[in-house]
């Protein structure tokens, strides 16, 4: 049976004193292939397309007859990315594509050879200019909507579909191999990382699933965890996030009514009685109660389908709940008040 994972428990003294907790077993579909002795794995998708992973992060490279294109360079993979490429080809690395500006995905870019030409969305350059970092060199070429990168016999189609996880996060498509690269949206076999992958735009995050499914791909590389994905993984992720949106919207309607255990009015009154003149406590208590309601309900449906619902399920529900209040206009206890 699914167990509630109250935020009060997450912050309890016992949990903080003993950070090693026991979670649900990982479903077999979320377990990735083993790593080599050096701590990484290379997967070939044919016709010169390869993924490199440490079962936490993922990068891609494409070998052409005129050089190698690298997509991202996570610092935790580090020099193993160069070793992986060197074990496959003698061609030099000539180009790099940035999926977006976050350092956990491109913070190893500084180890690539000098002279590499880097391509990114213009918003990625804006963010990198605001936070100068030698490990994330500024892109040499930028684009607004779409860019086709051709190096020898390899072609990548880069497209900005709108704000989702982070401004500038792009779709990267290899049409010959039918490989789609979309970072920090889908987590194949797993629940999204905390707060829906630390997304900055929940509406765009949800929409990105349909945008991904519009591509003709056989493999999707998503930047994280134990394996690459396929169309079914995208559909499962879409089902999870839509169910979360639906149940959190339902929680808003329940919370707007009196006489139930997530009544916003009752929670606020009880909280403010203990914490007078502190509206933060009332808001947090209301959002926490709604997030626990929808998180438990959604995760109960998905805990045997994807891994990690008990690890980051509450944080995902809280993100959805708060976004419904400030971004998606769910109403409920936060609807426009009558005259």
Automatic annotation (TrEMBL):
Signal found in the keyword field: yes
Keyword tags: Hydrolase, Signal
Domain Metallo-beta-lactamase: 57-224
Record GO terms (molecular function): hydrolase activity
Signal peptide: 1-17
SUPFAM superfamilies recorded: Metallo-hydrolase/oxidoreductase
Record-linked SMART domains: Lactamase_B (SM00849)
Domain of life per record: Eukaryota
PANTHER family registered for this protein in UniProt: METALLO BETA-LACTAMASE SUPERFAMILY LIPOPROTEIN, METALLO-BETA-LACTAMASE DOMAIN-CONTAINING
Protein name: Metallo-hydrolase/oxidoreductase
Organism: Microthyrium microscopicum
């Amino acid at each position: 049976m699914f167990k509630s994972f109250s935020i009060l428990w997450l912050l309890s003294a016992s949990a903080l004193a003993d950070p090693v907790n026991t979670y649900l077993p990982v479903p077999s579909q979320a377990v990735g292939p083993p790593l080599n002795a050096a701590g990484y794995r290379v997967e070939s998708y044919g016709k010169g397309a390869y993924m490199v992973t440490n079962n936490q992060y993922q990068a891609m490279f494409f070998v052409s007859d005129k050089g190698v294109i690298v997509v991202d360079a996570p610092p935790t993979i580090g020099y193993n990315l160069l070793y992986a490429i060197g074990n496959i080809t003698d061609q030099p690395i000539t180009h790099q594509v940035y999926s977006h500006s976050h350092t956990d995905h491109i913070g190893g870019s500084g180890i690539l050879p000098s002279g590499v030409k880097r391509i990114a969305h213009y918003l990625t350059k804006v963010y990198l200019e605001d936070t100068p970092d030698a490990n994330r060199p500024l892109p040499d070429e930028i684009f607004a909507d779409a860019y086709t990168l051709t190096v020898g016999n390899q072609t990548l189609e880069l497209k900005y579909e709108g704000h989702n996880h982070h401004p500038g996060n792009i779709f990267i498509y290899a049409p010959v191999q039918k490989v789609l690269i979309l970072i920090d949206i889908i987590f194949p076999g797993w629940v999204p990382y905390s707060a829906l992958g630390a997304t900055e735009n929940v509406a765009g995050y949800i929409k990105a699933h349909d945008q991904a499914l519009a591509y003709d791909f056989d493999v999707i590389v998503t930047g994280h965890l134990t394996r690459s994905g396929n169309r079914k993984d995208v559909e499962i992720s879409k089902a999870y996030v839509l169910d979360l949106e639906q149940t959190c919207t339902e929680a808003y309607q329940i919370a707007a009514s009196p006489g139930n255990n997530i009544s916003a009015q009752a929670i606020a009154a009880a909280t403010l009685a203990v914490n007078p003149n502190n509206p933060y406590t009332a808001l947090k208590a209301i959002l926490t109660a709604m997030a626990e309601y929808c998180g438990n309900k959604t995760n109960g449906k998905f805990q045997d389908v994807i891994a990690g619902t008990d690890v980051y399920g509450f944080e995902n529900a809280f993100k959805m709940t708060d976004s419904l209040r400030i971004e998606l206009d769910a109403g409920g206890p936060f609807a426009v008040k009558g005259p």
